[in-house]
Amino acid sequence: MTVEITSKIVGYRIKQQETAAPSPALPEEDPLTVRIPSRPEGTLEAVSEKISYVGAEGRKKVYLLVSFMPVEGVVGGKRVVIERPVEFFFPSGQLSSEHQWITATMRSLSLAARGGYVTQAVADLRKVAWDKGLVRCGTNRWNKPMFHDSEVAAIAWSIQQILYRRGFLDQDGNQVPVESLVERYAHRMQHGHAWQPPADDTLGEVGSGAVEPIGQAASTTDQASGPAVVGHCPECRGELIMMDGCPTCYAGCGWSKCG
Asked: Residue 103: is its pLDDT beyond 60?
């Protein structure tokens, strides 16, 4: 545009180019604690697990489903995505316990997952005890059988192992930092599959009773926890342990000296 000068020029200055105002920083929003109002419609990716354990009523095998979904948040001013469990489902008819209580527990776990505190909820379930003796499920880091205070505690431990193999918890059931979860989800997007622990960190699958990572050499087996073996089962020749004051087979046949 042309401008006509009608007065004497006494000075000049160079006009500076206007710069855009910096965009405001995004508010921090921890994707681990972002509340998910309800289960989203449509399909969710899920893990179906067969869990095997031995209690006072013999060996049992149950199935559990855990659904996952990506959740967005803001960390360090950057928008990030992690994967979180959002739903737990235990099909009916698998246990003799009243189904209403099983359903209530799974619904409560699902609410805890969507509320951002599922790690604490599962850890709390591991403290549940009953009066029917110990329940054998999985192995410890010395490859010795693990014994839990109830069926609920055994299933809760198995849930922790599912979340560990998915990369959401560490091998001790503690929450993995959000930075690591961001990296693991990015790994999934890049490689097309979920992050998993190294093959030599685990002993096997939950269903086979061997899932906990190896942490020490076999020379420490004398430190392993669990009841002492008191004999061999006359039915299947498996090892007997003391349960409720009676020698009981935990190898799978359910034989007990007390009948």
From this structure: yes
